[in-house]
Design a protein that fits this description.
- The complex is a heterodimer.
- Chain A has eleven helices and no strands.
- By secondary structure, chain A is mainly α.
- Chain A is elongated, with a radius of gyration of 37 Å.
- The N and C termini of chain A lie far apart (about 100 Å).
- Helices cover about 25% and strands about 20% of the residues of chain B.
- Chain B is built from seven helices and eleven strands.
- In chain B, the strands form four sheets. A four-stranded mixed beta sheet of chain B has the order 9-1-11-10, covered by helices on one side.
- In chain B, about 35% of the residues are buried.
- The chains are: A mainly alpha, B alpha+beta.
- At the A-B interface, helix 3, helix 7 and helix 8 of A face helix 1, helix 2, strand 2, strand 4 and helix 5 of B.
């Protein structure tokens, strides 16, 4: 052991050496380790910059208007107005930057439209759905419906063209003999602009009572005779009938 | 053992442990400032109208294309679940496969009581459990309320994947780091919509700044009865659901 400060106790000298070495190591570490490694805030700021610099693939709903104004305007007025061009044509940012170099995909197959329009019981009621096997099989959809302004090419005659699910349900129910128009007055215009012009719907209990009331004596409805009868005063309390019976498939079993 | 040695040993031990704990406390970012009260600037949120979703899966494909998510069908930043609730009380939940050819389904499957689609994604919680468990501070919540992952410092330990109650994280097979929805941070920071919102055909997905006075999102929040997923966990999710069924977890 070195014998420098004579008076200092041996033990204190050793402690001092340990202390000096420790501070030296810490100080060197503090200076040598770069700030980004020590501060998470610096790391985060850098990561945000990296995140923001990532390339975009989708150009956005309005990017196509400039060059494809006609299609853009057409789509805006039709049923596909909420669809972005890139919902169907895929990411097209590179195409907007240099339209001649890359071209977006054109989804012309039936299987594409069917991803949204095939019948699926989980889809919201009222969303236009078709049975892909039954709906004009093998012909391309775009042959009859313009994808940028889709609508039925001709005005359909039957209600079942658009209300297929209801028609199919009714066809196997007790109300199979009743025409849709027995209960709904549908103006012709409803078949052309269905959301603009709505048919009527039955409003009260008495409507069903025309055929089902116990004391129907004189009625113009031919079918009333074979309809099972109920006591209108007692049956179903205050509720309208279709709060318990679905009118397109009136079942009495649970 | 003599007194001097014991003192030295204990002193060094104290120094080490104290230093280590202190250092770690500094690194743990979430707990310190999780609940700021007054917010100015942007504070991003997200709305989902469950009754508008048609389950077409465009969002899932767009997300993968925009964010280089691996093609395999088990890596998702956003996904859509199909719920089928049967009359006997059974509930089946499956993530849809957007590429699959639709199989024709019986129009009159009378055993179905009700059925619907539920879009899911990272809830961008205001108080995110994933951030709390990260041992290296590689995931954090930005000022504008988006939980991000720093792939340069992530060590791939999977703690955050375990901690997320919504299953929103996965380990990227390319970088071996945690990955998740960023609300398309690169898009929203230049004023574009996230890719999934961009391609949604029925506006079932809505994105916006919760601090904005008038926006589709603030209108959505005003006009609907809103739920969040797993509210009991107090994660304060910022993905808001309208018309959510009680069966959805």
């Amino acid at each position: 052991m070195v014998k420098f400060p004579e008076k200092m106790p041996d033990s204190l000298a050793r402690l001092l050496v340990v202390f000096v070495v420790l501070t030296a190591v810490l100080a060197i570490a503090w200076v040598m380790i770069p700030t980004p490694m020590k501060s998470v805030h610096v790391q985060w700021d850098n990561a945000i910059l990296r995140e923001k610099a990532k390339p975009m693939r989708y150009a956005g709903a309005h990017a196509c208007e400039e060059c494809h104004g006609e299609i853009y305007g057409k789509k805006k007025a039709g049923y596909h107005r909420d669809l972005s061009c890139e919902t169907c044509h895929g990411p097209a940012k590179t195409h907007t930057e240099d339209p001649d170099k890359t071209k977006p995909a054109i989804p012309a197959t039936r299987s594409f439209c069917v991803q949204c329009h095939a019948y699926n019981p989980s889809r919201p009621r009222g969303f236009p759905q078709i049975n892909p096997q039954g709906h004009n099989p093998l012909k391309p959809c775009a042959g009859c419906h313009n994808p940028h302004d889709p609508k039925p090419p001709t005005t359909p005659k039957e209600c079942s063209a658009c209300h297929g699910e209801i028609a199919r349900t009714k066809a196997v129910s007790h109300h199979v003999q009743l025409e849709c128009t027995t209960c709904h007055q549908a103006p012709q215009q409803h078949k052309i602009t269905p959301r603009g012009v709505k048919p009527t719907k039955p409003q009260n209990r008495e409507f069903c009572g025309k055929c089902h009331a116990k004391d129907t004596r004189e009625t113009r409805e031919k079918l009333a005779k074979s309809a099972p009868k109920i006591d209108m005063a007692e049956h179903g309390e205050k509720y309208v009938c279709w709060q318990c019976h679905y009118p397109h498939s009136p079942e009495v079993e649970n | 053992m003599n007194g001097r040695r014991r003192f030295l040993r204990d002193f060094l031990a104290l120094l080490c442990s104290g230093g280590a704990i202190g250092g770690f406390l500094k690194l743990l970012p979430g707990s310190a400032h999780a609940k700021e009260t007054v917010r100015t600037g942007k504070w991003y949120g997200y709305g989902v109208s469950v009754d508008k979703c048609i389950g077409c899966g465009r969002c899932m494909e767009a997300c993968k294309a925009e964010n280089n998510v691996p093609k395999e069908p088990f890596f998702f930043r956003t996904w859509v679940e199909r719920y089928i609730i049967r009359k006997n009380g059974e509930t089946a939940v499956r993530t849809i496969d957007p590429g699959a050819e639709p199989v024709p389904e019986a129009a009159l499957d009378k055993s179905i009581l009700r059925s619907f689609f539920v879009p899911k994604l990272c809830n961008q919680c205001a108080d995110p459990p994933c951030v709390q468990v990260c041992p290296v501070g590689a995931t954090w919540r930005t000022e504008d309320g988006v939980v991000l992952v720093n792939e340069k410092t992530c060590i791939g330990c999977r703690y955050c994947i375990q901690a997320c109650p919504y299953g929103a994280r996965y380990l990227s097979p390319a970088t071996h780091t945690a990955d998740k929805c960023t609300f398309c941070y690169h898009r929203i920071s230049v004023g574009q919509l996230p890719a999934c919102v961009e391609v949604c055909p029925t506006q079932a997905r809505i994105f916006g700044d919760l601090n904005a006075a008038a926006s589709p999102l603030s209108r959505f929040l005003r006009m609907n009865k809103i739920h969040v997923l797993k509210p009991g966990l107090n994660t304060e999710p910022k993905v808001y659901y309208a018309n959510l069924d009680g069966e959805v977890r």
